[in-house]
Every structure is written in C-alpha cells, then in structure tokens.
Amino acid sequence: xxxxxxxxxxxxxxxxxxxxxxxxxxxxxxxxxxxxxxxxxxxxxxxxxxxxxxxxxxxxxxxxxxxxxxxxxxxxxxxxxxxxxxxxxxxxxxxxxxxxxxxxxxxxxxxxxxxxxxxxxxxxxxxxxxxxxxxxxxxxxxxxxxxxxxxxxxxxxxxxxxxxxxxxxxxxxxxxxxxxxxxxxxxxxxxxxxxxxxxxxxxxxxxxxxxxxxxxxxxxxxxxxxxxxxxxxxxxxxxxxxxxxxxxxxxxxxxxxxxxxxxxxxxxxxxxxxxxxxxxxxxxxxxxxxxxxxxxxxxxxxxxxxxxxxxxxxxxxxxxxxxxxxxxxxxxxxxxxxxxxxxxxxxxxxxxxxxxxxxxxxxxxxxxxxxxxxxxxxxxxxxxx
Length: 385
Hints:
alpha+beta; nine-stranded antiparallel beta sheet; six-stranded mixed beta sheet
C-alpha cells in the first residue's frame, strides 16, 4: 500500500506546531487558551495543505491500441445524413435503323488494271450495323461518278440480313474505252426509297475504282514450215512435188515456188521481223558458182502455172544467198521490208508465197545440172493486235 504524501505533510506540520508550542511562553496563558491556539494552528495548516491539492476529476480512458499503418491519418469528415444529389447514369446512343459498315473488297481492289472494254464483276462485303433487318426490299444504287455500264440499282439480298450479319453484293461492269482512272460511288436504299450509307466512310459511299490501260504490245515468234511447193522448168514442165531452183542438164532454167500457211498469226497483228531459212538442203553441181546468187521474191502465184516463171533480171528480192556458207549465217536470212510487208498483207488470206530464182541467168549452158534443192521455213516475230 502507498501512504498518501499529503497526510504525511500534515502530520509533520502538526508535529512542528506541538513542539513549537512547547517553546512558546506558557506562563500567561491558561490551559484552555493553549489548547485553542494549537487547534487554530492545526486548522490553518490543514487548510493550507488542502488549498495546494488539485480537485479530483474523471480522466477519459486513452485507447492504447497500436494504430494501423495502412489507415490514412488525415481527418475524415463524419458521414452526413444530408441526401446527396443523384449522379446521372450514362445511357447508350440509340442505334439507327439503317446503317452499314464496309468490311472489304471481295474482288477488284482499288487500282485494279483493266484493258479498255474489259468486263469484270465487282463484289463488296458489307455488315448490317443498324437495328433493322435488311430484306429483299433493300438494294444498292449507283450514286455518282463513273457507272461503267452498271445497272442503276441491284437488289441487296434475296433473303434477310439481320443486324450484325454480313452480306456480299456483286455488280457486273465494263471498263471504259479510254485509258484513265475511273470511280463509281454507291449507297444503299431501304424499301421506302430513303438512301443510307456507310458509317466508316466520311462521304457515306462505298465504291469501285479501276485503272484502264492499253495492253503493252506482246511479241511472239513462230516458226512456220512450208505448206506446199512447186517448180517450173521454163516452158517445159510444172511440178508440185519439189521447189528446186537452178538449171537442168538440158540448160533449161528452173525456178522454185513455196507456200507458207500463216493462219496461226492473228489477223491484225503487226509483223516485226521475219527470216527465211532452210530446214535442210542439198545441191547438184555448183549453182552458186555457175549461176550467181539465189534470191527469194514475194510471189502470190495462187495455182502454179507457166506464167509464174520470171525471166532473168527480176528485181525486188526479199533476201539473197550467194553461197552455201551464207545459208548458215542468220543475218543473211533476215527479210527486208518487202518481205515483212508481204507477210503482213498475207494475213488476210492466210497464204504467204515466194519464188526462188537465180536472176542473173537462166542457165550457164554447160549441159550440167546446177540445182539448189531446199526444204524451207520462215521465222516470224509479231505483236498481237
């Protein structure tokens, strides 16, 4: 138990008063007076001690719980019972009844190149992003630009395209006749004839855009073997089983004739170059040494007859060979412009005919056959129309 310090202090004060009273003069005081003095001093001392002691009070208990470090230390206002204003809840924008979204060009992406007048089919893929189903009453309509022979409108679907579904729509078109860039714009139309467009297009259009270009010339080279042949001995004989040129042992001039079928070259093509070359050949005697240079001429003889034999001194050769060695040199086989023109003209009738002749003389008169006996071909390079 702990002794109250205030009581100890009072006790010491009383004790000192008792002792001091013993030292005070007692002779003049009666016992009653002495007792009164002592009681007064004790009372005053006790009163003085009480005045220095605080009044008892009820101290509020302190919460010694360790604070949670995760809690905020800032003052939080007490909840209020005052009703707070309602915050509006965001609402979805109403979806239009008719609206479409372009997904892709199924065919003919922008910039596809076509030849003038070429036909094609354009197909778009669209999505119904509206709130109404597309039915057979819906169509797409041409809305400006280049129509390219397309119809004014095309039915969108033969069934039903519900919201969220896709549809492919195709239109047959024809490329314009002139070179250039062409674009046709399209929109959709609902049964009430109201037009509507594409949500992901600033103009609302979807379109077809093409380039029209003339085709680059395509060169082809063909080798054409002889189709028929013949030969004429001057004034003596017409034969259709050989095309020999030179002279006979009777010193008679001999000329050969060859037909090439050029029907494999399209009519209207442009002949660029041509060559006359032997597939094979042999000789009797020395035709190049005795008769000079062999030449070929354009000669549209039709059905061979004696009137097709030409005398010495003929002009207008398309190619010449002055030795057997030259028959193996490609540059000597190239036809001049007269030969190219001859083939060009022959395309309409499909037959290109030539005559083989030693024009310097009909015969050297040595009673020895000097004959060139070839199997020929032509090599033609041309551009298609």
